[in-house]
Write a structure and sequence with these properties.
about 525 residues, alpha/beta, five-stranded parallel beta sheet, globular
């Protein structure tokens, strides 16, 4: 029977795993190679080998209500899209509230994870660690949760571009980028139009002489704000919208959403329009990129072809001379060097890797649900499908996503936010029962079905039920507006009128919301 569980890494997923293990009566032992919690979200002045790294100005692109832990709402006064330092502060609050730090061994690196000789009977693992003093220690664990993330091994494809050896400027990966100070007054090329590429290009463009953003395929650009300045993800990621998108033809949905985006920024005119349709790939979340193009501070360019002494050449044949630096925002390679064997199928699976997926929705709720499911499996309270069924599902998802992602590995990692969450919640026994909810609590049902799919929905019932989940859902919009309440705006005096009765206003708002969602389909 599983008792001791090794948790590798004390980032957001590691903290969630520790807490869930404790909830299930297991004994977690967490090994964290650095001296602090937070993982990726712990800003470091200089990059360290095989550790995640972020830039100083990074602001999350998922709003606080959508990305919080399911039983621990973020403080009401936090901004909806917060700076990385505030997110790290939230992790500290979470760790303090649930007393998680006592389970963490800091400055302890996991060197290897391997099956024990009697693994077929015991399901146990041998783990070798090295502490801060350089001393090697050996441990035996009943199960392992790998939470070290996959943003530790940068993909830097310099060899794909002829002439880089003689290029006079500097080439580096975005993991080395901290701020734009070193780019002041220079000519810089940013390669890659993911979220990091968009952020870095915009920031550099504020101080560089000229900034070029090179992209192979382009991207659909969405801001963080929806109608009335509300968080985009809270208006877009709802169960109602999810059903609409699944029922309606993809061509129609793509047309409607793209039509809603282009009036804000004509993607073709701005050189942003991608080859793919909007639903095929994750959009770029950036509020400032179009305005920097409009101001001429940032110039869109096609894919990089190669280097020419002090310049660079693009695939359309154009050349930009006197380039001082090229920043490669080209992603990361998933790699777990300490893992010597990953069993594809066990009689009682005792190893799980957290976070190996890509989605268009928030990441943290999925990681937390993965942890809840894995710990249930470890404790014998939930079962995985057979090996054949799992391989069948993986292959099916890979084929479905190959149209958008030419790389088989990337295609296999794509998941749809709400369906994937609901699937795992079904295994854990925490998926909301909508018929029962409608009959017993219609007010809550409306919020759950038409409102944002926030993590609290998976704490309403079943194992790990949280008594505060219902109230958290009913008050989530209050926490959204709380940080805006910094100045009292006087209301004009008006006489009461039947046209402005609370009932009519409520009905009108609900009706308008439904019509808007049907129109935008997001």
């Amino acid at each position: 029977m599983v008792q001791r569980v090794a948790v590798v890494g004390a980032g957001s997923s590691g903290l969630a795993c520790i807490k869930i293990c404790v909830d299930e009566g297991l004994e977690p032992v967490c090994f964290e190679s650095s001296d602090d919690i937070g993982g990726l979200w712990k800003f470091k002045e200089s990059p360290e080998p095989e550790r995640s790294s972020i830039y100083r100005s990074l602001v999350v692109n998922t709003s606080k209500e959508m990305m919080c832990f399911s039983d621990f709402p973020m403080p009401a006064d936090y901004p909806n899209y917060m700076h990385n330092s505030l997110l790290l502060q939230y992790f500290r609050l979470y760790a303090d509230h649930f007393d998680l730090l006592r389970y963490i061994h800091f400055q302890t690196t996991v060197r290897s994870v391997a099956q024990r000789p009697d693994f077929s009977l015991s399901g146990q693992w041998d783990i070798v660690t090295i502490n801060g003093d350089g001393e090697e220690e050996r441990h035996v664990f009943d199960a392992v949760l790998v939470c070290s993330g996959h943003y530790t091994h940068p993909a830097l494809p310099l060899s794909d571009f002829p002439g880089y050896e003689t290029f006079s400027g500097r080439c580096f990966h975005s993991c080395e980028y901290k701020d734009a100070d070193a780019c002041r007054g220079k000519r810089v090329v940013v390669v890659g139009i993911g979220n990091s590429g968009g952020d870095i290009a915009v920031e550099i463009s504020r101080s560089a002489e000229m900034t070029f953003l090179s992209t192979r395929q382009g991207a659909w650009v969405m801001g963080r704000m929806a109608t009335n300045g509300l968080p985009m993800d809270m208006t877009a990621i709802t169960r109602f919208n999810n059903i609409l998108i699944r029922l309606l033809p993809n061509t129609l949905v793509n047309w409607a959403v793209e039509r809603a985006l282009n009036p804000k920024c004509d993607h073709k005119l701005y050189g942003l329009k991608p080859r793919h349709r909007l639903l095929d790939k994750k959009p770029l979340i950036n509020d400032d990129l179009p305005s920097r193009i409009l101001q001429g501070a940032l110039v869109m360019k096609p894919n990089l072809k190669g280097f020419k002494d002090s310049g660079v050449e693009f695939e359309d044949g154009t050349v930009e001379e006197n380039i001082d630096a090229v920043v490669f925002c080209t992603g990361y390679n998933g790699n777990f060097p300490f893992l010597t064997l990953f069993p594809p199928c066990l009689s009682q699976p005792t190893l799980a890797v957290m976070g190996l997926f890509q989605t268009k929705g928030p990441i943290m709720p999925i990681v937390e649900m993965q942890a809840r499911w894995a710990v249930k499996v470890f404790a014998g309270l939930s079962r995985l499908p057979c090996k054949e069924k799992m391989l069948e599902v993986i292959e099916s998802e890979r084929k479905r996503n190959m149209k958008s992602y030419n790389c088989p590995r990337k295609a296999a990692l794509q998941v749809d936010f709400i369906p994937y969450l609901d699937f795992m919640a079904e295994q854990v026994g925490v998926r909301p029962n909508f018929l029962r909810l409608l009959l017993r609590d219609p007010v809550l049902w409306v919020r759950v079905f038409f409102g944002p799919c926030t993590p609290y929905q998976y704490r309403l019932s079943g194992p790990g039920q949280w008594a505060g989940a219902r109230q958290a859902i009913l008050t989530q919009w209050e926490r959204v507006v709380q940080p805006f309440r910094t100045r009292v705006v006087p209301e004009p005096e008006s006489k009461p009128s039947v046209l402005f009765s609370p009932w009519l206003l409520t009905f009108g708002a609900a009706y308008s919301s439904v019509i808007y969602q049907i129109y935008t389909l997001i």
